[in-house]
Amino acid sequence: MDDRSGSYEHYVVDDRTDDNHLESNGAAKSPLDVGSMDSLSAQHPTHILNGFNCPNAFTQKREHATEQEENGRLAKLSGAVRTILECIGEDTSREGLLRTPERYAKALLFFAKGYEEDLGGIVNGAIFHENHDELVIVKDIEIFSLCEHHLVPFTGKIHIGYIPNGRVIGLSKLVRIAEMFSRRLQVQERLTKQVATALSEILQPQGVAIVVEATHLCMRMRGVEKTTTITTTSSMLGSMRSNAKAREEFFNLLKLT
Ligand SMILES: [Zn+2]
Transmembrane residues, as ranges (predicted)? Predict the structure, then answer.
């Protein structure tokens, strides 16, 4: 324990109840020096930048776009939506559709807003030394994602569990990490794995367990048209993979079997 340990509990408790309060306090609230992408990367040199945050040049372009570039993107996307409407057999001059291209373009950018975020920005100092070594679970986090094969939504819940190894993260950050990855084009399996791997690399915990339960509109509205099917995926890392008891405790607490 170092001389900052006295404030850990306070910080953690605050973060679990009011994330904004924490963020508004700036540097004073950062028990660990992991507030920036640079320091995060320095601690975990193999991770984040190459893997999750900047999948390609287009992602970086979007995250760092100027206002002018954003306007250009919106105009280009609106034009593409107009083309889609024409291709499905619609009259784009019809009154009800006049503003639809721009409206849908904005909606799509919102659906995929996870490309504008990165892990360093989200974590932003909210990692704390804490000797807690019992399972931490945040369950029933709602997710809205887009299937990358059909560009239609899949929605559901993600359950996140981890066993700390000297470091914990503000609970609201778990929600935001899930949000960042789900607000990108995804397949459910990869989304599950990405959240697990990100947590593993950020916290280096004893174990991580992620479960995602979702329904896919591409299954409900087309193809097999199974309207009640729920797809469940999981990713277990570290002791959550190797220790059956830890895994059992996680599933018991989720009330899943
Ligand atoms: Zn699909």
Answer: none
